[in-house]
Amino acid sequence: MKKISYAGILLLLILILVACSGAEDSSRDEQALSQDTYLTEEPVTELDQETGELGEEGEKEDIPDFSLVDLEGLPEGQLIAEEAGGEASLSGKIYYSPFTGEPVDDYYLRKALMVIIENSPYSRPQSGLEEASIVYEFLVEGGITRFLALYWDKIPEKIGPVRSARPYFIEIAREYDALLLHAGASPEGFAILAEGQVAHLDQIYNGQYYWRSSDRRAPHNLYTGSKRIERYLDQMIGQEYSERFDFQPVSFIKPTDEKADFIRIPYWGGTYIIYRYNKEENLYYRYYGFMETPHLLDNNKQITANNIIIQYTNTRAVDAEGRLEIELEGSGAALMFKDGVVIEGFWIKDTDSFTHFYNMQSEKLTFNPGQTWIQVVPDTIKVEYQYSSKLVESEEKTGELEEEKQEEITGENTEDNTEENIENIEAETRAEIREENTGEKIDEADSALSENETGLD
Predict the structure, then answer these.
(1) What are phi and psi of 99, to 5 degrees?
(2) What distances in angstroms separate CA 231 from CA 160, 173, 212, 346, 434, one per listed residue?
(3) pLDDT tens across 57-89, in order?
(4) Whether residue 186 sits in one domain with residue 126
(5) Do residues 88 and 149 share a domain?
(6) Number of folded domains in the chain?
(7) How confident is the model at residue 190 (pLDDT cuts 50, 70, 90)?
(8) Please, which residues bridge with residue 373 across strands?
(9) Which of 334, 340, 341 is nearest to 258 (CA)?
(10) pTM of the model as a whole
(11) Same domain? 157 vs 229
(12) Are residues 188 and 142 part of one domain?
């Protein structure tokens, strides 16, 4: 009996020791797990079920734990994977372009690229303007214009034709702290570039970043593009930009806003630029010339804009070749077109800042997300704009007034004709009476003459 009792006690002690040892191992494992990482339960995706999450040896691989945060309403492809402490996760953060206010697919620390693009008849159709974030249009000598196009998150494969720089192109590139691409410059332009305040790649000295096409004659066939320039940009020191404009995702049109869906810009030298507003797309379509020729690109797409700024500047010729001096510092009048309305205002620029645009109440103008065109024009020209519906109403009213006037004239003519008819009838009646009386007198005279003649016989 004592042996059985001792055996039982011994067995009980063994079980207690085994239990304590297991609890200690479990505690040690939990402590190690808490020190390495904190795991949360995640639903198995369809992809996990299909692959079975098996490695080459048939064992389940370690799959990183992803947590989805604030993903509701994100556009497809906007999930950004991040790694923190060796653990990957999906972030719902959306990055926006500081130049268009539109979502971009990544966070960029990149210097903006600005390219001078020709706009003579020999240069059309151009390439790459559709992907630009902001486009400036300036006058150059000869009464033609050139573009200064800004690229940041999207650099197209083909941009051009690339042409030479003028001082005001360089000044805008410095305003954006951008890398300027050009092919030569005016004498004053070369002098400014030599000061070293603007990063630039002149095709004359850096031909590897450009190429010439065989379908056009020089100098209207010089191009650049992403394959030639992106590596150079990536090697430059990264740059972060503040928001260029105050973007307003939702537009509000007040009853007092002045509508304008037709814009006509008469540059010097007979260059006419026209924009027509498309209400369904909320876009302005670009045309040129008296015949309103659609301004098409080499992909056969017409140039459009979400916002249009008219920036009036003091402009004058400075040499016999007709080169211009355009004052971009200080202030001046401005017009803004968006959402089919026109806003009168002004612009202000200090030496080391962006040019800012205001309405007549000195409130900063808000912009629609998308591409902005800034038309820099001499302050001596008059930009014409109007609302076509009002024009139609005016033409209809004019037509109605002309019809009423015509009816009045017709009525007056009818009255005149009636009076003339009455007078004619009265005249004819009097003539008939005279004829009858004359006939009777003639008969009497004939009778008397016959009697006299008979008496003579």
Answers:
(1) -105, -25
(2) 19, 20, 20, 39, 112
(3) 333 334 333 333 333 433 333 333 333 333 333
(4) yes
(5) no
(6) 2
(7) very high
(8) 135, 308
(9) 341
(10) 0.68
(11) yes
(12) yes
